[in-house]
Amino acid sequence: MKIQAQFMAFPDDFWWGSAWSAEQAEGRGNTGKGRTQWDMSWDKYSHRFYQGINTDTTTDFFHRYIDDIQLMKQTGHNSFRLSISWARLFPQGIGDICQEAVTFYRAMLSEMMANGIKPFANLYHFDMPEAMMLMGGWESRAVMDAYVHFCDTCFREFGDLVYHWFTFNEPLGPVLGGYMEDFHYPNVIDFKRGVQVGFNTILASALAIKAFKCHQLNSKIGIILNLSPTYPRSENPLDVEAAEYADLFYNRSFLDPSIKGSFPGKLVETLREHNLLPLFTEQDLNDIRENTVQILGLNYYEPRRVKARTSAVNPRSPFMPEWYFESYVMPGRKFNPHRGWEIYEQGIYDLCIDIRDNYGNIEAFISENGMGVANEERFTHAGQVQDDYRIGFIQNHLAYLHQAIADGCNIKGYHLWTFIDCWSWLNAYKNRYGLVSLNINTQQRTIKKSGEFYQALSQQNGFFFNGLYVDF
Questions:
Q1: The CATH number of the domain where 250 resides is what?
Q2: How far apart are CA 368 and CA 355, in angstroms?
Q3: pLDDT of 305-362, one tens digit each?
C-alpha cells in the first residue's frame, strides 16, 4: 500500500494522548500501598531486574502529578490512560478501602479534568496485590470476586471523573509471562493453568462490566488488547494453517469473547483435544455472553509472522501453542534492535480493518504504540533528546491509521506509549519510550523533540506527511 504525501487531518475530537500504568509510574507514595506481585518477584528474582531497579520510586507520579499534568498539556494531550492501583485502594486486595488512596486519585483525576485532559482509567495492569497472589492469583475464584469488588468500588468513587473505563490492559500478558514464558510471577510453565487464568480473566472482565452497568454512568467500558496481525510466510496452505492457529491462540482467544461473547470454535476444539479446557459453569458462559465491551483499546507494536513447523514436536515437552507453528523472520524486515521487534507500519492498518470487518466495527482507539530506544541520552543536543526516529515512527503509523479511518474504521484516537520515560517490567529504564525524558537520579523531566512534535500534532489535529521515514 502506497501512502501519498499530503496533510493528514484527523476527525474532530480525536483523542491525542499517551498511556502508562500505576505500577510503572506512581511509585509507592505514602498511602500505605500494599505489596504487589512485583515486590514478590523482587524478593525472589532481584537479579532479573535491570540495574537492580524496582518499583519503589519509578517516575514518582504520586508526588509530581500536578507538574506532570502541565507537561501533558505542553505535549498536546487531550486524553491520558492511567491505571488505578488495586493494591493502593485495597492494600490486601480486600477489606477496608484506603481513604488516603481515594483522596489521591480524586485529586489527580480532578487535576487532569481541570486541564482539559480526559482520564481513561484502566483497572488492571499486571499489578495484583500480594495477598491476592498468595490466594492463587487469577486461578482463584475468590480473587476474581475481590477484583470485581475493587472495580465496583472504583465506579462508585471515581465514576464522575473518568471519561472511559477499561477492565484489563493486555490480559494475555499474565498468561504469557506467568505460565508460558517465565517473565511474570508466579513464573511457572503450565499452559493448562494458563488457560484457566485466561478464562477467569475474561470472566472477571465480563463481571466487572456487569457491575459497571448498575452505576448508570455516562462513560463507556471496554478492554485493551495487545494484538499482532498474523502473517503466514507464504500462501502455501500449511503456512496459512499455521497462521490461523497462531491467530486463534494469541488474538481471537480474547477478541471473540470480549466483543462477541463467545470463544472461537476451532480454539475450543483444539484445547479439548489436548485436555486443556478450563473449568467453568454455564452461568459463566452466560455472563460472558451478556456483558461484552462497549469500546476496544488496540495495542499495536509489531506483526506476528509464522510458518508451518519444520521440526517435530517433542510430545514429552509442555504443551505450547507453538506446537502448531514456528516463528518466521521475514528477510529485509525493518527492525528496532533495542527492543527486538519488527517495525511494520501497515500492521496498524490491517489490524483496524480486521476489527472493522470481523468485529462489527466497534468503537476503538490505538491505546498503545511506541518505540523503545536504549542509551537515548546519546541523542541529546543542547539539553534536549533529538528523537527524530520516534517522530518518524509515529508519523509512519499515523499515515496508515489515517488511511484506515478513511476506509471506514471506527477509530477515535491514538495514545502513544508513553508520556514520561517510565519503568518497564524487569527492563526498568533500559529502553526509553517517552515524549519527555527522565533523569532517574534527579527526577528531572525534559520534553524531547518528539514531545514538541506531539504538541503540534494535537493542535493541528494532523500533520503533513511527505513519505515514510525509514532511518531507524
A1: 3.20.20.80
A2: 16
A3: 999 999 999 999 999 999 999 999 999 998 888 777 899 999 999 999 999 999 999 9
Examine the residue annotation and report whether 269 is marked as an active-site residue of this protein: no
Grid cell for residue 36 = 504487589
Residue 470 domain flag: no
Nearest 10 degrees: Cα torsion 244, 340, 398, 469: -120
Place of cell 483523542: 15
Look at residues 49, 51, 21, 59 and name the one whose alpha carbon lies nearest to residue 375.
51
Which residue in the list 244, 342, 345, 368 is annotated as catalytic? 368
> Is the Cβ–Cβ distance between 319 and 195 less than 8 Å?
no
pTM for the model stands at 0.97
Domains contained in the chain, number = 1
Q: Is 170 a catalytic residue?
A: yes
pLDDT one-digit tens code per residue, 144-198: 999 999 999 999 999 999 999 999 999 999 999 999 999 999 999 999 999 999 9
Q: Quick check: 470 pLDDT over 80?
A: no
| Pairwise CA distance, residues 194 & 249, whole Å | 12
The DSSP annotation for 97-150 comes to: --HHHHHHHHHHHHHHHHTT-EEEEES-SS--BHHHHHTTGGG-HHHHHHHHHH
Tell me which residue range forms the domain holding 389: 6-465
Residue 472 belongs to a domain:
no
CA distances from 50 to 36, 368, 444 (A): 18, 23, 21
The catalytically annotated residue of 170, 302, 345, 376 is 170
